[in-house]
Amino acid sequence: MKVLLKQDVKGTGKMGDIVDVSDGYARNFLIPKGFAVLANADNINAANIKRRAEKHRVEVQRKNARELASEMSNLTVKVYAKAGENGRLFGSITGKEIADALKAQYDISIDKKKIRIPEPIKTTGITVVSAHMFEQTDAEFKVEVIPAED
Questions:
Q1: Which end of the chain, C or N, has fewer beta carbons within 10 A?
Q2: Do residues 97 and 80 make contact, with C-beta atoms less than 8 angstroms apart?
Q3: Across the chain, what does the average pLDDT equal?
Q4: Handedness of CA 91, 95, 96, 101 (dihedral sign)
Q5: CA 63 → CA 40, 67, 112, 125, 133, distances in Å?
Q6: What is the model's pTM?
């Protein structure tokens, strides 16, 4: 019996695959549990439409991420922190502080976990930082640490 898998099933196939399984396995396990539906023309057509819509959504996300990454390459984000002698900071600059500064200064929302700092920022000055935007798309921008006025 040919069935269309609605989700990944270990040992059988991945979501969207049309697989040929035994009648009992399909009628007694896959279909009642909601893992699969019969592979008729309507179900196959609906799965193809859903697959195309998902592919289009991913392409739009990729395009938007590349545009944002190219826009961010010219940015310099200013972060203020308490500093002691010789420009040494009390603590270090984190991804959260950089993400908050990006949001405040340029209205760009990036998850703090996506910001990659090559080594801890513990001094004032300019540092190049990257942010992972999407699959194989990273944006590099500058972070300028400025001593905060008390």
A1: C
A2: no
A3: 92
A4: positive
A5: 35, 6, 21, 32, 11
A6: 0.71
Which helix H or strand E contains 77, and what residues bound it? strand 76-81
Cβ(90)–Cβ(84) below 8 Å: yes
* Residue 34 Rama label (left phi>0; alpha psi -120 to 50; beta): left
- 30-34 LR contacts (CB < 8 Å, sep 24+): 30/3, 30/5, 31/3, 34/6
Q: What is the pLDDT of residue 11?
A: 94
Q: Which residue has the tokens 């195309």?
A: 52
Q: What average pLDDT does range 96-116 have in this prediction?
A: 93
Domains along the sequence of the chain with CATH? 2-67 (3.40.5.10), 76-147 (3.10.430.100)
Q: What is the pLDDT of residues 52-62, one digit of tens each?
A: 999 999 999 99
Q: CB–CB of 90/125 below 8 Å?
A: no
Residue with token string 């938007």:
64
Compute how many other C-beta atoms are within 10 angstroms of the C-beta atom of residue 55.
Answer: 10
- The amino acid that residue 29 corresponds to is F
Q: How crowded is residue 12: how many other Cβ atoms within 10 Å of its Cβ?
A: 16
- CA 24/CA 114 separation, integer angstroms: 47
